[in-house]
Design brief:
The protein is an all-alpha fold and about 170 residues long. It has one domain. The protein is elongated, with a radius of gyration of 20 Å. Keywords: Membrane, Transmembrane, Transmembrane helix. This is DUF2243 domain-containing protein. Pfam families: DUF2243.
């Protein structure tokens, strides 16, 4: 089929169908994971200084303890950076494909889902399974950790609603 036939026949045009959001959603999820990690590291590790990567394993009140925690935070940020670079590459690749839908709503929903997924995975593994740190150590640390998990669920739900709404609108 030639280009003039594709343009005259809407069923074969380059218009995206709902299933063609997948590359955009995957890029958004990966970017959301990286950005969720950066948010955690910048806000909770650096600005609020509630915890560091290994603060439940070694104190940050000694030079040696702070060095280990700073190394952990650096490795954590390196992983966030690699996820972000991967997400940018995936977004660029999705943007070069003619049949991929371009929806800000679906992309933002995927970003939120990625950030929520970050909170759930990091919260379950680091706070509960490994116990290497808690969101806010001290009194009520379990509530803070559960709140972190709850924020992850909320971000996942909001993101999913946005993506589904975009799919229905297309």
């Amino acid at each position: 089929m030639n280009n003039s036939e594709e343009l005259s026949n809407p069923s074969t045009s380059n218009l995206a169908t709902p299933g063609e959001y997948r590359p955009l959603i995957i890029a958004g999820l990966v970017l959301g994971l990286g950005q969720g990690g950066f948010f955690d590291g910048i806000i909770f590790h650096q600005l609020l200084q509630w915890h560091h990567m290994f603060s439940s394993l070694t104190t940050d009140m000694t030079v040696a303890g702070m060095e280990i925690n700073t190394l952990g935070d650096g490795l954590f940020h390196l992983a966030d950076w690699l996820l972000t670079l991967t997400g940018i590459f995936l977004l660029w690749r999705a943007g070069t494909r003619a049949k991929v839908a371009h929806s800000g709503q679906a992309f933002f929903g995927a970003l939120l889902m990625g950030a929520g997924l970050f909170n759930l995975v990091e919260g379950v593994i680091d706070h509960h399974i490994l116990g290497i740190h808690h969101l806010k150590p001290g009194p009520h640390q379990l509530l803070w950790d559960l709140g972190f998990l709850g924020s992850g669920v909320l971000l996942l739900v909001i993101g999913w609603v946005l993506i589904e709404s975009a799919r229905k609108a297309s």
